[in-house]
Amino acid sequence: MTANAQIVIDQVSHRYRPPTGREVLALENVSLSVQNREFLALLGPSGCGKSTLLYMIGGFLPTVTGAIRIDGKPVAGPGPDRGVVFQHFALFPWKTVKSNVLYGLERMQLPQDERDRRAQAFIEMVGLAGFEDSYPSQLSGGMKQRAAIARTLAFDPKILLMDEPFGALDAQTRGLMQAELLNIWRRTPKTVIFVTHDVQEAVFLAERVAVMSARPGQIKAVIDTAFDKTDPHVFKSKTFVDKVDEIWGLVRDEAIKAQAGRTK
Amino acid sequence: MKAVLIRYAPLLILAIVWQLVSQFELVSSTALPPLTRIAEAWFSLLTSGELLKNAVSSLYRGGVGLALAIVVGAALGIAMAWWRPVNVALGPLVEAFYPMPKSALIPVTVIWLGFGDGSKILLIFLGCMLPVTIGAFNGARSSEQVLVWSARSMGASRLRMLWDVVVPSALPDLLNGIRTALALAFILMVTSELIVAREGLGNLIGYLGANGSYDAMYGVVLTVAFLGFAADRIYQIFMHRMLAWRDMAT
C-alpha cells in the first residue's frame, strides 16, 4: 500500500523557536501516506500543527526530522506540482483576477492564446466571468477564494494543498464552495490534502480523515469516510451523522486539551 | 474647475493682500515688491532666455540626481530587506548617514567634482537616495509571506518572485519615499546653486539678490516654488495611478 502512495510522510517532527520564549515542538513523529487521487482531510484543533504539516509538504518549511517524499522524491522546496490554496486567498492585490489566474500559466511553456484560453476557462468554471478585470479589493470573500482556486487549478498541479480555504467564508458561501470543490475534484481527479478544523466539512469532502492531536501534533487516527455523497441530503443520512459523531468524539478530547493548554 | 478655484482661493487671497500691502507701502516695496512689478521683471527674464537657460540647467541636475537616487536607492532598500548580509553590512551606514544634513556636503562635493553639474548631481543623488532606500526597505519587509509562497509554488524563481511580489509589495512605501526625495531634490538643487555654481535657478536668485534686482529675484523664487509644487502634483497623480489597485474598494 505504501509502495504506490504518492505522498509519504515518514516520521516527521518539527520544532520552531518563536521570537520570544522557548522552542516549541509543533509536530511529533507524524507518519501518513496519501494515495494518488485521494482526497484527504487533515483535521485537528487550532494550533495542532496541521497547517505546519501542509506547509512542509508544500516545501515552504524545511523538513529537518523525518522525511516527506512525493513519488519517491524528497520535497526540496515549493514547486508547481503542488498547488496551494491559502486561507486568506493570497491573491496578488496589484493584479486583476485574470492576471492572477494567468500567473502560474505564465511560468509554463505555453503559447499565449493557450494560456488565455485556459485562464478564461477556469474563471468561467468558478463563476467569475465578467470579473476578469476586477482587482481583488473589489471582490467579496467568496469571490476572492474562487479566484484563488481558479488560479491554482489553472496551472494543473497534480496535488492540491488547501489550508482551511473556506474558513473565512460565511456559512452559505462555504456550503456552495464545498459542493463545487467536490465537483471539480470528481471531474479532474487530483490528490487533495485539505486542512480544516470543521468535522462536517472533513467528512463531507474527504475520503479519509486524519485526526490530529493537540500540540505536539500527532496523527491520532485515520478514519475512512469514503461513501456516496452525491445525494444533496447526505448531511442527514445515518452514515454521515455516525461518521461525524465518531470523529467528533476523537476531536473533542483534543479540543479540550488544546483549550487547557492555551489557558495554562 | 470650480473645485480647483475654491481649493486654491487662499493662494489668490494671499496674492491680493501681497499686492495691496506692497502697493500702498505698508511694507517697504524693496523688501516685498508688488506682484505686478515682479511679473514684469519675470517676463523680461523669460524673453531674454535667461530664465529658461538656468531652469534647464537646474532641472537637468535635479532630474539626473533624483533618477540615480531612485534606481540605486530602491535596489539598495530591497536588497537590504531581502538579504541579511546586505542589511548587516549597510544598515548601520544608512542609519548614521540618514539624519545628516546633506547640505553640509556641498563644499565636499565641490572639492571632489568641481563647480559644474557633477557636484550638484552627486549632492542631490546622496541627499535623495536614503529616503528612497528606507521606503523600499520598509515596503519590501512588509511583503506578505503567503504571497511570496504563492508565487514560489506557482513556479516563480527567487529572482522572479522578488520582482513579482516584493517590488509591488514595496511600492506604496517606495513611492512615498520618492515623494520625499523629490522635495529634497529641489531643496538641494537650489541650495547648492546658491552657494557654489555658475548657473542654475539658485545661482540666478543669488546673483539677482546681490545686485539689488529684487523684483527679478522674487520672480525666480516664485518660479522655483511653482516648479516644486507642479512636480509634486504631477508626481501625486502618477502615484495614484500606480496604486490604483489599492484604492479600488467596491
Low-confidence stretches of chain A: none
> How many distinct helices of chain A?
7
- CA distance, first residue to last residue of chain A: 42 Å
How would you classify the helix and strand content of chain B by structural class? mainly alpha
**Low-confidence runs of at least 5 consecutive residues of chain B:** none
Can you tell me the CATH topology of chain B? MetI-like fold
The CATH class label of chain B is Mainly Alpha
Report the principal-axis shape of chain B.
globular
Q: Give the mean pLDDT of chain A.
A: 88
Number of beta-strand segments of chain B: 0
How many helices of chain B? The count is 11
Task: Sum up the structure in keywords.
A: 264 residues; alpha/beta; 10 strands; 37% helix; B: 250 residues; mainly alpha; 11 helices
How does this structure look, described?
In chain A, 37% of the residues lie in helices and 23% in strands. Chain A has seven helices and ten strands. In chain A, the strands form two sheets. In chain A, strands 6-7-8-3-9-10 form a six-stranded mixed sheet, sandwiched between helices. A four-stranded antiparallel sheet of chain A has the order 2-1-4-5, covered by helices on one side. In chain A, α2 (97-106) runs parallel beside α4. The longest helix of chain A is centred in the last third of the chain and has 26 residues, at 238-263. Chain B has 250 residues and is mostly helical. Helices cover 80% and strands 0% of the residues of chain B. In chain B, α8 packs across α9 (158-195) and α9 runs parallel beside α10. The A-B interface holds A 55, 58-60, 77-80, 82-84, 86, 88, 90, 92-95, 103-104, 107-108, 135, 137-139, 151, 155 and B 144, 146-147, 149-156, 160, 164-165, 168, 171, 245-246, 248-250.
